Every structure is written in structure tokens, then in C-alpha cells.
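S.,

As promised, the nicotinamide-adenine-dinucleotide run. Input:
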Amino acid sequence: MARKKIRSATTLAIREAIPVRAGDGALAPNERKLNFGDRWSYAPAPEQSDYIRVRPRYQLFIDGKFRAPHSGRYFDSINPANETKLAEIAQADAHDVDLAVRAARRAHRKVWSGLPGRERGKFLYRIARLLQEKAGELAVLESMDGGKTIRESRDIDLPLVAAHFFYYAGWADKLPYAFPGRVPCSLGVAAQIIPWNFPLLMAAWKLAPALAAGNTCVLKPAETTSITALHLAEILQEAELPEGVVNIVTGAGDTGQALVEHDDVDKIAFTGSTAVGKLLTRAVAGTRKKLTLELGGKAANIIFEDAPIDQAVEGIISGIYFNQGHVCCAGSRLLVQEGVFPAVIRKLRDRISTLRVGDPLDKNTDIGAINSRMQLDKICELVESGLQQGAELVQPRMRLPEKGYWYPPSFFTGVTASHRIAQEEIFGPVLSVMTFRTPEEAIERANNTPYGLSAGVWTDKGSKIFKVVSKLRAGVVWANTYNKFDPTSPFGGYRESGFGREGGLHGLLPYLSLS
Ligand code: NAD
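Predicted complex:
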């Protein structure tokens, strides 16, 4: 009953908000509305894709060569924007995984671990330059296979992929300086399992530090987005990376499990869901294998009354709608201080109606396709639970393409901390908005989650940033910005968001033993 009262009061506040005029008759900044008129529209601006060579079949990459899977089985990779089959991907079983681990072990023993750091660095620089050279083609492939917009794959994913290789190339011959007074030594064979939301970027986050530190790798991409990893394998061949230093086995959870359970793996690096992360923790317990986990999140993005509201609204947009909301550190819980709640909600409602959902290969598209039918079903199920539990859904009126997997940019108001949409990762373009009165309440609400990956704070006051940030239990906190990534900066969480860091000097540590 009490909850209902609060909800109707907020709705009223939005409806009754009367524009406040400043002395000169102009609207106060918080009351200004975006007006795009109705005479402007975008012409289609498709990225050229007819030159892209998608192979009908992709094989496993083991010991420097492409080879058919032991089982002879393949599975389909679907373009989520039109539901057409893009290619067949080899399904690796325990036998293939064994071949890959053996190849990696041989390469570690015979070549890679004995190579001087500056030589390893040269290979990494070469890979980075080849990635830059082929960035256009890889960005298109990434968008076709995963549904992300070309704007993001071209301007964010691919530049960061190359930057990670460049950055860790620089560390390869400087490991003793990275850890003064210690003797760094590679671990051996690293098993690396990655998710589908940033396929090549996650591969780069894993491979670049592991190789710089002198390890060899067996990488398992996610089953819906394996294609660009296999194009990366071609780049590794072109860079003449010694055979077996990087091996790529494709397949679903079974393949990942076979890799995790292989006796001759020294290190497991996993990025994915918390549920699978917990399975891995159990599988590794009692073995000598080292483990790092980068798992899910339910980040709070906190807007204080003194924040620059227009910029904060842009931060909210990039915090939750970037990459269709398929982002572990997405600002998926918006906490707004009560005084600015009506203004923020109004601006947010206006802003999401300007977002363009559609063809990922169109350069004007803001929100691309949902990665898979399964993920779309998961988003719909959680949205339904939000409605059932009494929250109010705001969605712009828009026509979605008929074929493919789509979800409009959405947000919920009237959310309470106990709602599933406030607790569980939706991993889609859906935001849960809540309010707070004091900084203490904002901190308490932000920390009221089993996760601890990221958070955002928007305020005019530097002192408030320091005060609040020091009390937020999150691995990464952005102040007056959101979703900014850089290879020099460590990323990772704690609690149910995992442990270990990727990026920066810290990203080398999980791949080294220090004596
Ligand atoms: P997922 O856990 O289902 O799958 C991740 C990877 O693990 C895939 O390659 C999958 O095939 C493999 N896998 C599945 N079952 C396995 C098993 N039993 N043993 C070994 N491997 C197994 O996750 P997803 O749906 O692909 O990705 C989304 C999740 O990843 C979200 O929860 C998101 O928050 C998280 N994520 C975290 C980060 C981070 O840095 N913290 C980054 C990106 C994504």
C-alpha cells in the first residue's frame, strides 16, 4: 500500500511539472526539452559489407593450423539482425581440447617461455598492427555475427582490441621493471573462456597479457560469436606467431567444461555469467590451477541534484543502452536524487525516443540487434516480472524490424529494491530507476546488490565524488562519465562479480608467478 502511494506521487510529479522560467523568460536548464521537430529524418547509411569474406565453415585452430573437429560436428552461427545463417562453426569435444592443450604445452616448453621478452613483444606489436589494418573488415564481421552497431564495433571495440595488444607488447620486455625486486615467471598454459558481448575485445583482454607474460593459450569463444576469433587466428598466422602459442577451440558450455577440467592447464581465465563462474570455482577447488573470474554486475549510476543534468542524461544513455545493454558493467540501476527526479525522467523519456533501433550495419543506428533469441527471451521474461511486481515501464513508440531479435530502449520507474529487475542482471536495454534523498541513502542503495563490478557518480562537487566513491563497493567507479575503457586501466570486480583484474599492470599478475 505504502509503495503504491509513493508511485502515484512520483507519476503526479512528472505530469504536473510546470516549466519554470528564468528571469529573462528563458526556460531553466532543467526544464528545457529536446525538440528534434518532425521534418528531419536520416537517410540509410549502410556500411559496405559486400567485400566481407564470411567462410561457409570455420574449423578449429590448433597448433597453428585449421583442422576439422574430431566429432565431425558443426553448429550454426546466426546473424541476429535478420536470423540468417552466417556460417557453420566446428564443435570441439574433449579430444580436440586435449590436442589444443598439448599443442599449447609444447609451444610453451619449446618456444614461447624461452623467447626473450622483446621478441614476444615484437609478435604482439605485429598482431596489433595487423588488427589495425583489418579493423574495418573485423568491425563489420563483429556487427554481423553479434548484432552490435557498426558505430560501436568500428569506433570502440576494434580500436580497443588493437590498443590492448599494443599496450601489452610494451610490457613484454619490461616485466622485471613491472615487479621490482621480484623474478616474474610465466605460468604455462592458460585456458581462456569468453562471452558474446564483446567477442574480439574479450579475446584481446585475455590473449595480450597472457602472451606478454610468456604463457601459451587455448581460447574458447562464446558459441554465438566465434567468427571474429577465427579471423584473428588468420592474423596470428600472418604474424607468424609460432605454432601452438594460441589455439582456438569453438563450441558451447561442454567445450568450456572440457577445457576447465583438462589436467594440464595451469591457469583459467573466465569471463561470463556468475552462475557458470560458480561452477568453475567448484571445478578448480583442490587443483593447482589458478583462476580469475570476470562475472556479472548490476551497477548503480547515481545522479545527485547538483549534477549537470543534460550531461548526466547522456551518461545514463551510454551507461545502459551502449551495446544493447549487453554490458557487464552497464549502469542498469539508476539512482536519482528526489529533487531532480521529474526533470531526469522527462529528459530520459525524450532522449530514448530519439534513439534509432535497427540495422547494426547502418552508421546511424544507436541500438542494434539482441545477440540471440535466448537472450531476447531472457530480457522479455525479466521485463514481464517487473510489470507483474508493479513497476511502470516506459518505452518509446517505434517500429522494430520484422525479422531478427530486437528490444526497444526502455526504463522502469516505481522500482523497489526487492524487485527482480533491481536485483538481477537483465543484460539488455532496460533500466531500473529508483530515487534517494541523501548521499548516505544513495550509498546504501547502490551497495544493496550481491554484485560489485562498477558504479557511476554524477555531481558538481569533487569532494562529494571522493566521499561517495570511497564507500561504494564496486571494482570500477566512473565520475561524471560512464563506460570508459582503456588498456592501461585495471578492470574487474569483487563479491559475485568475480576476482582478478584485467588491463593495466594488474592485468599481468594473474599470468605470472613472482618469486
Ligand atoms: P555464460 O557464462 O553463459 O558463458 C560465457 C562463456 O562460458 C561462453 O563461452 C560459454 O560457452 C562458456 N560456458 C558455459 N558453460 C560453461 C561451463 N560449464 N564450463 C565452462 N565454460 C562454460 O555467459 P554469457 O551469457 O556468454 O555472457 C554474459 C555474462 O557475462 C553476463 O553475466 C555478463 O555480465 C558477463 N560478462 C562479464 C564481464 C566482466 O568483465 N565482468 C564482461 C563481459 C561479460
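The chain has 16 helices and 20 strands. The CA atoms of residues 35 and 326 lie 29 Å apart.

- D.
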